[in-house]
Amino acid sequence: MKTMKITSFLLFLLLGLSISLSSCKKDKIYTIQGKWEGVVNDGTADFYYALNIKSGGTLDVMDNAANKSQITATGTWTVVNGVFSTIVDYGSGTKVSLTSPFNSKSATLTGTWGNTPSTTDGGTWTMTKQ
Hints:
By secondary structure, the chain is of the alpha+beta class.
């Protein structure tokens, strides 16, 4: 009988510890700022694409797979109501807009892009936070 009480006590103690330890686990929180890397797709193929999203609402674009650190365009960005939006300026009048839902618990951006002002007539894109 005494062994049963000790065994029951140890079982409840172990169960309580496992519940408290699992409930203390925190989800990782991702910020939009930082390096994001992935691909854009124009409906025919995937192409390397990366964003270095900076605080203050600016970003750099790297889309040269042979030289992934080469900045090929710059832009501005916002996150409003959980939606990341950017306008990228390639110079000589060429501007591209990208949009994606942004959830701080996810390290992935997946959305559409287009020739500004459209955000959909170009294709799709997906990136992972580095």
